[in-house]
Amino acid sequence: MIKTEKLIKSYGKGDLELTVLKNLSVEIGKGEFVAIIGPSGAGKSTLLYQLSLLDMPTSGSVSINGKNMSSLPEKEKTHFRLRELGYVFQDYALLPELTAVENVALPILMQGVSKKDALRQAEEALARLSLTDKKHNLPSQLSGGQQQRVSIARAIAHKPHILFADEPTANLDSVSAEPVMQAFADLHHEGQTIIMVTHETEYASKAGRVISLKDGVVVSDMKTA
Amino acid sequence: MKKALQFKRELQNALRVGWFLAVRSLRRSSKWTTTLIIFIMILTFLNLVVVSGLLLGLISGSFVAFREGYSGEVIVTSAAQRSYIENSQNLIAFLTHHPKVEDMSVRYGVSAQILGTLTDLPGKNERANQIGIRLIGIDPVAEERLTRFSRFIMQGETLRENEEGYLLIGANMIKKYSAFADANIPGLDLLTNIDIGDRVRVSLSSTDGAIRKDFIIKGIVKSKVDEISTRAFITDKELRRLIPVNKNEVQEIAIRTDEAYAPALVQEIKDFMGNYAARVQTSGEAIPSFLRQVETTMGLLGNALSSFALIVASITIFIVVFINAVTKRKFIGIMKGIGVSPLAIECSYIFQAMFYGIVGSAVGLLLTFAVLKPFFDAHPINFPFSDGILVATPESALLRVVILLVVTFLAGYIPAKIIVRRNTLDAILGR
CB–CB of A176/A148 below 8 Å? Predict the structure, then answer.
């Protein structure tokens, strides 16, 4: 479903050039729940940005469903992200001036759905994450765990093919992190493809497959029980 | 065709999402900030409309005073090189029966000398207390109807119909009352030591020799229209008795009609009289050309000041939107990241800027037409040469609203475009 070939990502030029991803090739199938782990500077987030089309590789390619995405113009990438991909950011990344339900409704609205239907779908997504009673709260009126669940609701409300999560529990304590990870597990059981970056092995073990990076290369790639 | 349809669909969606974001951003932004920005927009609008309107109003006030206090909407005067309006009685008959003529005042005029001191002869090297003046014969009733003449009486009383032996004199002809009394103008010797109730001697030149008659000053007239403040007035019946010839030929006819109809009436009178029998002008045409030039200069000055105000407003909006967009750069990145189109984000900032522009203009319009214009109409600014009013028409105000909104649009769009075009990931990561 998603495949990288000889992916290289470098920053800077000349003596200051730093290569973060080095000839990296991975393949992730439909319905997989993949955790990408590794120490700081291993290239986890950089890989995620390439896979999720938020960044352009220096060389190599990323293809989704057999289509090379690296050569797509920015406008089409934005369209593709809107229709096919969902994102959960480390710091929740909710828009502070929108309520929980409005935050979730925004990408649905952008797809051309009517406001009424977008808000209804957003409420359904919030209900799945047990946040119905918080739907009219602004992000500032929610706890970190609740904000992250709203962020997940926003990422899944438009039913994306692939869900990306960048350190979704990094800012949460264990009590708050638990329902977030449970939400990912539930989504995986429903067939959702999930690619998650984490540095916490405990949460990585909940994924079906763990790809371990070090210094920009894959050092292990194994399925969990 | 397909591309055009797709663009239309994208634009519609971007407008819809932009509106959704803008409404919520405005609703949940700081009330103080919103109020302050709108206040700046109101001041900008007032600067655009009121400053230029007042500058123009200084001159327009004098035009209004000229029309209402002297010329009416149409004024007929003697043609060049003629001392009276030819066939004036026929013209008066024509105008009396003209359905569009609401009122008129027929004025007779001669050149005269007024001697202020009748008792003492001047010394050997002294000039007489005497001044040359235009003596106008008016029908006090008709003049009152046309110009509300009695409002110009600053001292004493106005003339009554059929009154004899009484005279009104313009304030600028008497040293005690003249605005030019302090000016050392060579050749301008104003009348001294005379006031209400004093006797003066009027002399008219005639082929039969000088005609002299003594009058008692009944009133002093003062207006910002020179044609009133520099003349003397007696009743028309008395003037016609004094002058030996052409007793029925008049020098001025001021006509009240619908202002919009004035040019047509001018043409009708010209058709009736022929081109050389009289000078026929609308009030606007009769105004001295230097005043027209002053009006143009004031207009240019007003536009220059308005342009500065517009630049300040556009920079203000630009800075507000730019700072707003810069502080939300991360969120703009996130929106782009989750698939919100750059156009929708730009639309959101444009809508916010337009909100400030529209509310500022609306409040500015309300203040202009409901408060300031009625106030200045009721209390004109007292300038030496005019009563300054606020010139603001709905058309000119609307034009300024459009200008302000176009500038606001650009000031909202450009900073939003600058921020939105930045790399999505850099914006999200704050790089």
Answer: yes
